[in-house]
Every structure is written in C-alpha cells, then in structure tokens.
Amino acid sequence: MLKRLFIAFLVVPLVELVLIFVLAHYLGWLFTLGLTIASSLVGAYLARQSWRSWWRTVRDEWGSEGFPVHRLGEGAILVTAMAFMITPGPLTGFLGILFTIPPIREKISRMLVRWAGNRLLGHFWR
Questions:
Q1: How far is Cα 55 from Cα 97, in angstroms, rounded to an integer?
Q2: What is the pLDDT of residues 94-116, one digit of tens each?
Q3: 37-63 burial by CB neighbour count: b if 16+ within 10 A, else e?
C-alpha cells in the first residue's frame, strides 16, 4: 500500500508537469496558466454545488429511510474531486470536474462500492 501511494505521489505530479509543458508548447504559457486557473475555479464551484446537492439528498433520505449507506461512495468521490481542485494542473482539474457530474459520480460510486465490497468479502471469507 505504501509503495502504491509513493508511486502515485511521484507519477501524478510528473504527468501534470509534462501536460503543462506540452500545453504551453502548443497553446502558449499565458493560455495554459489561464486554463489551469479557470479549471480550478470552475471545478471548485461545481464541487461546492455538488456537495450541497449531495448533502441535501443524504439529509432527505436519512429523514425518511434511515442512514443512506449507498450514498457514502458518492461522498468519497466528491471529497476526492475537491482534493483534485486544490491540486493545480490540467489532469487533476479535468478529473475533479468530471467527478462533480452526478451521472458519472454515481457510476464511479457504484464501481467503488462493488470493488470495496468484493475486497472486504474476499478478505474475511476466503
């Protein structure tokens, strides 16, 4: 696990730098900088709106049905999107914006919950 985190924290910034240099080469530094800042601002706005909508849904379902466990994956995806918005760069900005779109977020959440469930069941019932 530690090795994977180390690789992720090494590879992602390198990919971001390469993408920034490639974009700057083809589009110019000023446009690349503007695009990076704009994607962060738009993504932060979308993340905030998505979080409010998600929290409203969780609160409504909690009041009527009980705690909505199936919504926890979506919350994790939104927290990840917000972390991506903090990180400057075209790749993380794009992924952060992508993770704020509800249909995509729900699909990724289902995949995440299925993966975590299989891991958990595989760990305890071998």
A1: 18
A2: 888 888 888 998 898 888 888 88
A3: eebbeebbebbeebbeebeeebeeeee
Task: Identify which of 48, 103, 49 has the alpha carbon closest to the alpha carbon of residue 74.
Answer: 103
Cα 66 from Cα 17, distance rounded (Å)? 45
Q: Is this prediction's pTM over 0.70?
A: yes
Residue 69: closest CA among 109, 96, 9, 122: 109
Q: What is the pLDDT of residue 126?
A: 60
Half-sphere exposure of 50 (CA within 13 A, CB side): 27
Distance CA 119, CA 39 (A): 34
Q: Is there a contact between 94 and 84 (Cβ–Cβ < 8 Å)? A: no
Tens-place pLDDT, residues 46-90: 888 888 988 898 888 888 887 777 788 888 888 888 888 888 888
Inter-helix orientation angle 72-86/90-99, to 10°:
150
Domain ranges of the chain: 2-124
Please answer whether residues 99 and 105 qualify as being in contact, where contact means their C-beta atoms are separated by less than 8 angstroms: yes
